[in-house]
Specification:
single chain; 8% helix; globular; DUF6705; mainly beta; 1 helix; DUF6705 domain-containing protein; signal
């Protein structure tokens, strides 16, 4: 009985995927707009694959651990008769400072959420290279990701994001994170949810440029 159930499940799963027309997420034809009904915006070339896995940065007593995985999300908007699929790179962060665990969102990657925005780190798109794109080898190599921290009641920490790209140095594959300060001092006077000063006055992740090394 279980065998027949599995066959039926596989049939319906394959059938549902077959309803979508695959296009390249990073090279979509000009006549096809973003989020069109019936399309699957797929990482055709495997661009996300270079980031998948666990990366670690250590400087003195501070250790950052990043994990990334690629996931496909189904987006459905019945009120406008629109359903499509899209690949995302989703991520999670762990922070240890002075031997103390400050923050650990890694378990979130084991959960299945309906939307990429339910994860604290998720991709938005590739961006153009500039002088700070260290050892970049082809145009639009860097990936921009949104970055959120839980329980944020401070406008200064809204809409944060960082750039990442990989490179090889002395035979070692590294991931460079560019997380520059995007806050404005005036934002600290605009309280998010009330007239009281925000309780969150610092981030778990420090601003800066960090070179992560891939770990098993």
């Amino acid at each position: 009985m279980k065998k027949y159930i599995l066959i039926l499940f596989s049939f319906f799963t394959l059938n549902s995927f077959a309803q979508f027309t695959t296009v390249d997420l990073f090279n979509t034809p000009v006549n096809i707009g973003y989020g069109q009904n019936g399309y699957y915006y797929k990482d055709v070339t495997g661009y996300f694959n270079q980031f998948i896995g666990t990366w670690q940065y250590q400087n003195g007593t501070t250790t950052y651990t990043l994990q990334f995985k690629k996931q496909t999300f189904l987006k459905s908007y019945p009120h406008v008769n629109k359903t499509y699929q899209k690949d995302y790179l989703i991520g999670a962060l762990k922070v240890v400072k002075n031997g103390v665990l400050i923050y650990n969102d890694l378990p979130a990657l084991n959960q299945t959420f309906a939307e990429a925005v339910n994860y604290k780190i998720f991709s938005t798109g590739r961006v153009e290279n500039f002088n700070d794109c260290y050892m970049c080898t082809y145009p639009n190599q860097r990936l921009h990701l949104w970055y959120y921290e839980p329980n944020n009641d401070n406008y200064a920490f809204e809409d944060l994001g960082f750039m990442i790209h990989t490179y090889t140095q002395n035979g070692v594959v590294k991931l460079r994170m560019d997380f520059l300060d995007q806050t404005s001092p005036s934002d600290f006077t605009n309280f998010k949810d009330s007239n009281s000063p925000p309780t969150k006055t610092s981030l778990f992740m420090d601003f800066g440029i960090f070179d992560f090394v891939k770990v098993p």
